[in-house]
Amino acid sequence: MGISFSKEDDGYSKGFEEFRKDAPGNGMLWMESLREQGIRKFSELGFPTPENEDWRFTNVTPIARTTFTIEKNGHKQVAPEALSRFMFPKLKTIRLVFIDGTYSPALSDLSDIPEGVKVMSLDSALESDEGLVKKYLSKYADFSEEAFTALNTAFMQDGGFVHIPRGTMLKEPVHLLYVTGKSDKATITNPRNLLVVEDNCKAEVIEHYVSLDEGVYFSNVVTELIVGENSSVGHYMIECESMKAFNVSTLRVEQGRSSNIRSHSVLLGGAIVRNNVHPVLAGEGCDSLINGLFMSTGRQHMDNYMKVEHASPHCDSRQFYNGVLDGRSRGVFHGRIIVHKDAQKTDAKQTNRNLLLSDNAQIDTKPQLEIYADDVKCTHGATIGQMDENAVFYLRSRGINEDAAREILLGAFTSGTLESIQIEEIRTYCESLVAEWFARRKGGTESDNDPR
Amino acid sequence: MLEIRNLHVNVADQEILKGLNLKVNAGEVHSIMGPNGSGKSTLAQVLAGRASYEVTEGEIIFEGKDLLGLAPEERACEGIFMAFQYPVEIPGVANTYLLREALNSIRKYRGLEPLKHVEFAKLAKEKMGIMGMPDNLLKRSVNEGFSGGEKKKNEIFQMEILEPKLAILDETDSGLDIDALKVVADGVNALRNPERAFVVITHYQRLLDYIVPDFVHVLVDGRILKSGGKELAFELEDRGYGWVEEEAGKAVNN
Ligand SMILES: Nc1ncnc2c1ncn2[C@@H]1O[C@H](COP(=O)(O)OP(=O)(O)OP(=O)(O)O)[C@@H](O)[C@H]1O
Ligand SMILES: [Mg+2]
To answer: B68, B43, B50: which is closest to B223 by C-alpha?
Structure first.
């Protein structure tokens, strides 16, 4: 059974009345009120249009005009073997699996959670740790101007809840695996992740979006990551949705004093993808690495929106975000750096390199620096280019055939982008996804097809 | 081994080579000298197979095969090697990786088994030693951040590994100090044998003290205007290229 949104204007509001009846947190006044604020804001804002400067290069009409269904508790049986290709070889993880938006205890693995650490579904956390959830949920992911975040807040279904107490070195990464199964309807899920890392901790969290079928569906994700003082957190967004799917994800990070985060995005699937990465360097002396690789082909559209907010002095941010675009695909890199008045001695750097593999692929890259402090260092640079033909010729002149030469150069570009992933098994897994992408490209099946 | 007949080449719709003839036999070393812009690198690039250089007329026969019908990688596999005047930097591709891929690709073409990692490592180490190159240059990205001299040595190092039949060295001596020049020349001389030939492009007679050529050719404005023995190089060093042009002009007028 499910709830459908018609594409008419108040379709979502009508669906909301149905959805709220047994939504997670029902009966908790604060949750109900939060959801109501979400739906009200969403109705007011509506889906963004290209007149909105933040959406200038991305038209979400295909999302707005689709009628989506929320699958409630009706999730299919999925055999564990069907998920084996989404596991990281040689890496033990604490794993939460969600099928069509609903937590699946049977497919999850919570056997190795250290004492004091909480890893569970958000729905369960609302039962067992309401106070903790209430303290952080929606305190950072502002939706006053963000329609998709408002939509998620209204319809947040389930998601990963992670709480890591002071002084914990979490050995195993947390793997949040979101699987969309086969469906004859277009489905929507609104995963909501709340990741709270207290002071002096180290942790790694992987968000991983996959599908078992090449269907049309929409993953509208919001993740709040709160990083305590002196903590170090790696966050990985691995997006391998169906080529017909939509994925809009917002990662909102709040960084405490002397903390460091490493955000890695690897985007490969989806018809329309929007990846928002929004760290706020709130405490003094923070470090942020925002690293990403997006690879698009066919008619895929991948929009990467970075909003790096320096709110305190002596913080460093580094953006290294690269794209590979083939077929008729389109990419966007919008890199905002905001340096608030008090954020003196900010050192912010941004680079975006794009490799166009086809004459019909297109990239819009837009740096946007808003600097309100006077003693700061901000640099940005973007390149858009074809493969270096001199390098291709150089390799060929040494006896390497043309296809192999191009593959070597492409591999150098992608590996160079993934290099900063510290966890070797995760890096290797991402490398293997890229290798599959190359293999499909070589098969020649993708450059001409139309995933929409 | 190599025969170039009446070669005409256009670059960006401009004729650069205007009827060039050259014959190179196995075991010989030919030196090509000529003023800037006369077409020396164009000749080298055409031999290596760069597509942007358009051959409008003439032919190139290499060991009985029509060279112009072969892709650059096929030429390399047939035994042609060109040391670039301006070696290309390739970030993210390790020098050693490029060389192993190249060597194994050539071996495959010749029906040989690929070299195992250890065998290759041994071979590379030996050749690095000859070239006096530090080990870390193997692991670094191809030519990236190399000094001018290191880049040139790296070209010769590649030649040592790939053991071509015909090597074309395009101003490999330019920008080298005398010690590096000797190393490069030793590398070349070590490979000299009756089955192998060299075409050495240079501006300076100095190199020819170390790599003694059998023939010297003067390339001016897309044509070889004069050929001679190694003593021609001294004459060019003393008198420049003007007299060659004058002499050729007279020959045409008569
Ligand atoms: N890609 C190109 N586009 C346009 N013109 C070119 C190109 N490559 C070479 N040329 C021109 O062709 C002519 C011959 O160049 P080439 O590099 O062969 O000369 P060269 O004899 O090697 O000179 P040098 O001694 O300076 O190395 C020059 O006039 C040069 O400007
Ligand atoms: Mg030249």
So the answer is: B43
